[in-house]
Amino acid sequence: MTKSAKPICFRHLFASALVGLMLPLASWGAETAAVSEARLRETVTYLSSDELEGRGVGTKGIDKAADFIADHFAKLGLKTDLFDGTPFQKFEVNVTVEMGPPEKNRLTLIGPAKEGASPEKIELKLSDTFTPLAVGGTGQFDAPLVFAGYGITAKNMKQGDKEFTYDDYAGLDVKGKVVIVIRKEPQQKAAKSVFNGDKPSQHAIFRSKLANASEHGAAAIILVNDGLELEGRREKSANSLAEELEKLVVLRDKLKAAPAGEQTALAAEIQKSAEQVAEFSRRLATPADAILAFTDAGDETSHPKLPVFFATRGSVDELVKKALGKDLATLEKEIDGDLVPRSAELTGWRAEGETQLVQKKAQVKNVVGVLEGEGPHADETIVIGAHYDHLGLGGAGSLAPWTTDIHNGADDNASGTATLLEMATRLATSGQKPKHRIVFMAFTAEERGLLGSAYYVRNPRFPLESTIAMFNLDMVGRLKDDNLAIYGTGTAKEFEPLVDALCAKAGFKLTKHAGGFGPSDHSSFYGKKIPVLHLFTGTHTDYHRPSDDAPKLNIEGMRRVTDLLSAIVEATDGSSTRPTYIEVKKVEQLAMSDDAGGDRPSFGSMPAYPNPVDYGVMLEAVIPGSAAEKGGVKGGDVLIKFGESKITVLEDFESALRKHKPGDKVKVVLKRGQETIETEVTLTRRRM
After folding, report:
1. Considering only CA atoms, which of 323, 326, 345, 322 is closest in space to residue 335?
2. I need a labelling partner for 610 at 20 to 30 A (CA). Which of 154, 302, 449, 525 fits?
3. How far is residue 426's CA from residue 39's CA, in Å, rounded to a whole number?
4. Which of 33-42, 112-121, 456-465, 558-567 has the lowest mean pLDDT?
C-alpha cells in the first residue's frame, strides 16, 4: 500500500489550488480561450479523420496517430527518449486468427467395429461438411463422442414460483471427450420459455457453449445447426422466390402494355428479376444445412487450446440415431416438450482430428512524454493519461456490427487524446517547472481490454511506489448542460473537497463516483493502489458507432475540461505531501471485471488483461470489501476452479459465475505462487 509521510493539510492544499491556480484561470482571457479551442479543434479533427482509419489496432491509421502524438510531445520539448531512445512502449497483441493448412484441420467420426468388418468411418470434408471456428484453438484429439444436447447449464431460472435448472451436462462425464452440441436453445419460439421467452438468452450464444464445454473438461466440441435454423432458412428462400416471381409477372405484364420508348428499361428490369429468381431457386434447391464460415462465430479465440468445429447436421445425425435410437429432430422435440436433457454417451463412437489456428499479431505502442520536475519531489510522478485507439472499421465492440464504415471515435477517445495534448502544451509552455515529474501517456488497445495501461503498470518506466496520482481522460467531448462525471473521488482523502471546490467555481454540475475501478485506463493504476480521477462527459447514441464524428463535439466544453484538469493537476503538484490513498469499499460499475452491475452475483475481482498465465485466470486486483477479499483471495492469485467448474480462461470464469446467484457459497481453488489454496466465498449482489 502506498502511504503518505503525513496527511495533507487541506488549508495548505486549497491555498495552493485556489490562490496559486484558480486566480490565473479566472483571468483566462477570451483570446487565450479561443486559441486553446482552436488547438483542440484542429487536433481532434485530425485524430478522428478518415485518414486515421478509426485508429484500429493493426491499422496504419493508429500508427499515424501514435507518430502525431509523439511529434507533439517532441515539439513541446518533453523528454521522449524513454524506451530504447523513443517515446514508444511497444508490445504485441493478437489481432486476427487464420486457419492453418488443410492437413492440420481435419475431422473423422469413427464408429464401432462390426464383427469381421472394419470400423465405420465418416470423414468430413473441410469447407464442405465441416470447418474449424476461429473462436476455438489449436489441438489434436482421438476421444470418445458424447451428445451434450444444447450444451447448456442454466441454473436459478424461474418456472412460476419455483427455481428451475436445465443442465445438459448433469450426470454426463465429458472429461477428455468430444461433445456434439446443437446450436441455440430449447423452446426457441415459445413466448413463455424459461430461458428468455422467444428471444435468445445468454445460454444460446457460442461463447457460453464453448465455456461450458471447457469447464466440463471436453477435449473438443462439434457444433451443428438446430432444426429451427434449417426451417427458417428454407422458409426464407421460399418466400424470397415467391416474391420475386410475383415481381417478374408484374414486370412482364407492364412490358406488354408499355410504349416502345419504355420497353428497353423494362426489359433490363425483367432480366435482373429473372436472375434473382434463378438465384433464389438455387438456394431453395441447396440443402439448408450449411456450415458456418471460419469467423462467423467470432474472429477472436476465446479458448486457445480447445478445438472447435462446426459440422453439417446431416454428418452427425445418422450416427446419433444409430447410437441412441433417435435422430436429432426427435431429440429436440422431446427436449422442447418437457425440458429434460437427452444427453448421452454415443457408445462405440469416437472422433479423431486436429485443428491448427494461427494467431496474427500486431505491434502496438503506448506513447509517452515527460515533463521533468524540480525540487525535493522531482522523483515522484503524476500520470495524465488518455487512450488513443478506437474500433477501426467496427467488428468486436461496435454497436453497429452490420457496417464496415470507419468508426472515427471523435469522442471515444480522440477528445481525451486532444485534451491530453492540450494539457501537455499548457504545462510545458507555462514557463514554470512542476514540483513533480509529469508523465503524459497516450494508451493503446484500451478498447480491447485496457491492454495498454495494463501493460504499463506491469512494466512501468517510473516506479509505481513513487507514482502519487493518475488522472484519466476518456470521452470528454460531449459536455451537455454543464454535466460532468468524475470517477475516483474517494480514492484519496483530498480529492473530493478539491473537485467540489474547483467544479463549483468552473460551473460544472458534478456527479461523483467514489470508486477507482471503472470503465477506462485509470482502473489499471488503481489496481496498483494509486489514487485516480477519471473525467467523463457522458455517453450518447453515437457511442461505438460510425456516427461519432468531430462536428458533434463540444469544443468549448473540452477546453473547460482542460481548464479543470489543469487546476486539479497543479493543485496536486503544488502540495508538499502526496494524496492519501484510500481503499474504496463501495464497488462502482467495473469495466473489464466480473462486476458489471445488475441483479447478478459479484465475486469482486479485476482479472488481468491480457491474462499472463497459460492456465487459469490471474486476478489483477481484488475489490476491498468484496466477496473475494472476505474469502481471502488476493491480487496476483490465479483462479483455477470455481465451484464445480474448472477455469482455464476468462470466459470459463464468466460462465461459471453466471450459474450462481447472490448469497451462494462457492468453493474456489487458487494458485498463489507454487501453493494451491482452497477457500470459500459468499457471493454478493452486483452494484452499479
Report:
1. 326
2. 154
3. 11
4. 112-121
pLDDT band at 594 (very low <50, low <70, confident <90, very high): very low
Residue among 597, 683, 684, 603 at smallest CA distance from 650: 603
Distances (CA, A) of 611 to 56, 185, 583, 636, 656: 21, 30, 24, 11, 18
The CA radius of gyration of the chain, in Å to the nearest whole number, is 29
Calpha distance 472→385 (Å, rounded): 5
The bridge status of strand 437-443 relative to strand 467-473 is unpaired
pTM of the model: 0.71
Q: Which three cell numbers stand for residue 385?
A: 493519461
- The rounded distance, in Å, linking the Cα atoms of 618 and 672 is 10
520 and 591 Cβ atoms separated by less than 8 Å: yes
How far is it, in rounded angstroms, from Cα 24 to Cα 431?
A: 14
Q: Quick one: DSSP state of residue 120?
A: P
- CA dist 236 and 553 (Å) reads 43
d(CA 508, CA 495): 16
Task: Report the alpha-carbon distance of residue 586 to residue 602 in Å, rounded.
Answer: 13
What are 29-77's pLDDT values in tens digits?
455 899 999 999 999 999 999 999 999 999 999 999 999 999 999 999 9
Q: Give the cell for residue 561.
A: 475540461
Q: Write the DSSP assignment of 53-87 as a string of letters.
A: GGGBTTSHHHHHHHHHHHHHHHHTT-B---BTTBS
SS3 category, 248: helix
What backbone phi and psi angles, to 5 degrees, belong to 307?
A: -65, 130
Residue 500: pLDDT over 60: yes
- In whole angstroms, what is the distance from residue 39 CA to residue 421 CA? 9
Residue 226 in contact with residue 184, Cβ under 8 Å? yes
**What is the H or E stretch that residue 94 is in?**
strand 88-99
DSSP state of 402: T
Would the CA dihedral through 282, 283, 287, 290 be positive or negative? Answer: positive
How many other C-beta atoms are found inside a 10 Å radius of the C-beta of residue 87?
26
Residue 565 grid cell: 484538469
3 state SS of 122: strand
Q: What is the 3-state secondary structure (H, E, C) of 185-200?
A: CCCCCCCCCCCECECC
The answer to whether the CB of 451 falls within 8 A of the CB of 444 is: yes
Beta partners for residue 607, in sequence order: 619
Cα–Cα distance, 402 to 96 (Å, whole number):
19
* Secondary structure (3-state) at 472: strand
CA nearest to 665, candidates 626, 615, 631, 623 = 631
What is the grid cell recorded at 283? 438456394
Spell out the long-range contacts of 504-508 with Cβ–Cβ below 8 A and sequence spacing 24 or more. Answer: 505/22, 505/26, 506/560, 506/563, 506/564, 506/567, 507/482, 507/560, 508/482, 508/483, 508/484, 508/560, 508/564
- Could you tell me how many residues make up the chain? 688
- Check residue 280 and give its pLDDT: 76
Contacts of 241 (CB under 8 A, 6+ apart): 277, 280, 281, 283, 284
Residue 140: what residue type?
Answer: Q
Cell numbers for 671:
494458485
CA distances from 132 to 124, 328, 395, 624 (A): 11, 22, 20, 42
> Torsions phi, psi of 9, nearest 5?
-80, 115
Q: Is 676 helix (H, G, I), strand (E, B) or coil?
A: strand
CB neighbour list of residue 261: distance below 8 Å, 6 or more residues apart: none
Of all residues in the chain, the percent with pLDDT exceeding 90 is 62
Beta bridge partners of 685: 601
Taking a C-beta distance cutoff of 8 angstroms, is the pair 151, 179 a contact?
A: yes
